[in-house]
From TrEMBL:
This is Cyclophilin-like domain-containing protein. Residues 27-44 have a biased composition (Basic and acidic residues). Residues 54-153, 199-306 form the Cyclophilin-like domain. Residues 1-23 form the signal peptide. The keyword Mitochondrion does not apply. It comes from [Clostridium] innocuum 2959. Gene3D superfamilies: 2.40.100.20. The keyword Cell inner membrane does not apply. Residues 24-45 are annotated as: Disordered.
């Protein structure tokens, strides 16, 4: 009997040790997993800003790959951007990127990729179909429509809330009237509940007031933007975005000179004549004083710049 009790005590002791070891291993695994998640979260916060010679601004969210980190570590840089094919802009960083733990690229408009055989970074303003040796770096989260407009020298910097605050402070010190925001974020709402913007057409500049709704807020995140707007019916200029906006179209009976509206969810329309209509639009706002608008717009396609007034 004593021998049996001794054996049972030994078994219980061994079970206690084993259970404790398993518990310690489980806690260690959980701690390791948490640390890994925190590290990936920090890496996925990498964002870069590309600024063009004509104030084009594109912000990319980088993924947590080794190639993206290699690019991020080389910033800031000022470098030439080049056209390649009819759907991408490219630049060549000084050092080649490490693609050892990087997924292959294939994605929508705004995809940022690295083509290892050439050593160039690719910004897609059409769909990225993927290719051998093409690795994913991230995607544009702001200014997608401005990628195709980049040319000449571009400035690439690390982007963060501090970057935005520094830019805002610098712009407050500029002795220009009015001060215009050049970054892709906005938080300004005027006391009258409207957002105020500049619309520049050649040498003529108009001030417009936009409503405070979801569509307008999404649109303003793309500012500043320069659009080649086409002519239609002798009373409007229009532009189709490659990526649509949220919309809440309603039937309207009358269009007024200076109205700014969204047709469907991707067609921006600026009207320069009064006329009746039976179509449905999402109303965005209107030009405050449209006198001279028709003459400024002319009869054909025209480049129009939209900027947010601070």
């Amino acid at each position: 009997m004593k021998k049996f009790l001794s054996i049972m005590l030994v078994v219980c002791f061994l079970l206690t040790i084993t259970t404790g070891c398993e518990s310690n291993r489980q806690q260690a695994d959980e701690k390791s997993s948490t640390n890994t998640m925190e590290t990936k979260k920090e890496e996925s916060d990498m964002q870069i800003q590309i600024q063009g010679e004509n104030d084009e601004t594109v912000i990319f969210q980088l993924n947590d790959s080794t190639a993206a980190s290699s690019l991020y570590d080389q910033l800031p840089m000022t470098i030439d951007v080049e056209d390649n094919s009819d759907d991408e802009k490219i630049f060549y960083p000084d050092k080649k990127l490490d693609t050892s733990k990087t997924p292959m690229a294939k994605g929508p408009i705004g995809t940022l990729a690295y083509y290892e055989p050439w050593g160039d970074v690719v910004m897609y303003y059409d769909d990225c179909g993927g290719a051998s040796g093409l690795y994913a770096l991230g995607e544009a989260i702001s200014g997608i429509d401005q990628i195709s407009q980049l040319s000449g020298l571009i400035e690439i910097t690390k982007y963060s809330e501090n970057t935005k605050q520094d830019d805002d402070t610098a712009k407050q010190n500029e002795d220009t009237q009015p001060t215009v925001k050049k970054d892709e974020t906005f938080s300004i709402e005027q006391s009258d509940g409207m957002h105020h913007i500049q619309i520049a057409i050649g040498s003529k500049t108009f001030t417009a007031s936009l409503y405070d709704n979801d569509t307008v807020r999404e649109l303003l995140r793309r500012f500043p933007m320069s659009l080649q707007m086409d002519e239609l019916h002798g009373n409007e200029k229009y532009y189709y975005f490659s990526e649509g906006l949220s919309s809440s179209a309603q039937s309207v009976s009358q269009i007024y000179t200076g109205d700014l509206k969204l047709f469907g969810n991707d067609c921006l329309v600026l009207f320069y004549k009064d006329f009746p209509t039976s179509f449905s639009y999402t109303s965005l706002g209107h030009i405050n004083n449209p006198q001279g608008l028709s003459e400024a717009l002319g009869n054909g396609s025209i480049q129009i710049q939209f900027r947010l007034i601070e």
